[in-house]
Structure formats: C-alpha cells, structure tokens
C-alpha cells in the first residue's frame, strides 16, 4: 500500500485512522505493508508563518474568516469521530518540507509509521512547530531515532531529493490532492474514505490476486 500524504493536511490524519480501521477489518491484514510518500499541499508556505490557521487559510484561499472557522469546526468534529483531538487554536502553520525529510530518515530505520503518526499529532493535536528543526529532532527521538543525528540531517539537505521524487511521482500519477492511497500499484483511493471502503478495496484486490 502506497500512501501520499502531507503532515500538514488535516484530512490525512483522519484518513490514516480510517485506513487503519479498514485494515483491521481485512481478513489478511498481516499482509498489508504501508509505504508513506511525501506530498505538499502548499510548498509556498514559509518555514515559519506568523499568523494562526484561520489567518493562513483566509489569506491563501481568499475565504471569509468566519467561513474558515466553520470549516475548521467541521474538520475538528470529523477528527473527533476518529479519536483525534484537533486544536486549530494552537496550531502553528509551517512549511512541511523539513518534516517530510525527517519522515524519509525514519523510513530508512523502519520507523516510518511511527514518525508519520508523531508528526501529524504534533501538528494538529500538540500545537508544536513542525517547521522548527530542534522540535523535529526531539520528535524523532520520541520514536527511537538519534536526536543528534537527526539534527545533523536537518542542518543539511539530506533526503530532500527523496521528498522531491515522491512529489514528482504524485504529479506523474495525476494526484492533485491527499490523502491518496494506491493498492497493489494500480488501484487508487482518493480522500479520507470510510473504513469499509478500504476493507472492501483490499478484499477485492486480494481476491483478484489469488484467483
């Protein structure tokens, strides 16, 4: 299973939970291997943005601030339904590229799933600055990576090529929004679909594979 996702995407965390529930209901769940691919919803976002999420979305999307607040309330409710505690009042908008490089490093040490979860939670639930290199190094240590080594990685451009390659692959596949799930290299599921959608798709692909 290949999943394109951004750690600064609220629906990506919701989609992750729904996907996980879908896998749990799949008869052959032990056979599902997940590979996280990088994607950026807004590459133009500065490493550190001075405003809050409402100001950022109002500025970028040209939406009325009250409309943005209503949208964020809806997303918060959807997240709560999956056991997630979104805190948009504390969220600190930041360019996700550096965090995605940490994810690439974690993948080389078989910690991709743990790092993905930690980065999403840090951004949406814990109010941490996921554009800050010191914060990211400490988050890496939480999942068992070496904090000093991670800090050294982030002081360079290591893993930038891998992140860009994922983003380019998404472009070539026609992926224009995330989360986006690809099963067995050929079946795509777009968006944070209900858990049963993933269970059904996995069951169908398995049946086709063994028949």
UniProtKB/TrEMBL annotation:
Entry-linked InterPro entries: DSBA-like_thioredoxin_dom, Thioredoxin-like_sf
Alphabetical list of Gene3D superfamilies matching this protein: Glutaredoxin
A Pfam family it matches: DSBA
Domain (DSBA-like thioredoxin): residue spans on this chain: 2-202
Alphabetical list of PANTHER family matching this protein: GLUTATHIONE S-TRANSFERASE KAPPA, THIOREDOXIN SUPERFAMILY PROTEIN
Name of the protein: DSBA oxidoreductase
Organism for this UniProt entry: Glutamicibacter ardleyensis
């Amino acid at each position: 299973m290949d999943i394109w996702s951004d750690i600064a995407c609220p629906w990506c965390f919701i989609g992750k939970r729904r996907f996980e529930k879908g896998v749990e209901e799949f008869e052959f769940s032990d056979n599902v291997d997940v590979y996280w691919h990088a994607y950026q919803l807004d590459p133009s976002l500065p490493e550190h943005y001075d405003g809050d999420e409402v100001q950022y979305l109002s500025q970028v999307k040209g939406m009325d601030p009250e409309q943005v607040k209503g949208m964020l309330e809806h997303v918060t409710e959807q997240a709560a339904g999956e056991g997630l505690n979104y805190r948009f009042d504390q969220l600190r908008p930041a360019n996700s590229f550096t965090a995605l490089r940490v994810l690439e490093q974690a993948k080389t040490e078989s910690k991709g799933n743990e790092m993905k979860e930690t980065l999403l939670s840090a951004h949406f639930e814990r109010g941490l600055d996921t554009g800050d290199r010191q914060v990211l190094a400490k988050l890496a240590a939480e999942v068992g990576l070496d904090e000093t080594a991670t800090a050294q990685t982030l002081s360079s451009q290591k893993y930038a090529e891998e992140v860009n390659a994922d983003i380019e692959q998404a472009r070539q596949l026609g992926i224009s929004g995330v989360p986006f799930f690809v099963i067995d290299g050929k079946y795509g599921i777009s968006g944070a679909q209900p858990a049963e959608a993933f269970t059904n798709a996995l069951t169908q692909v398995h049946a086709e594979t063994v028949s």
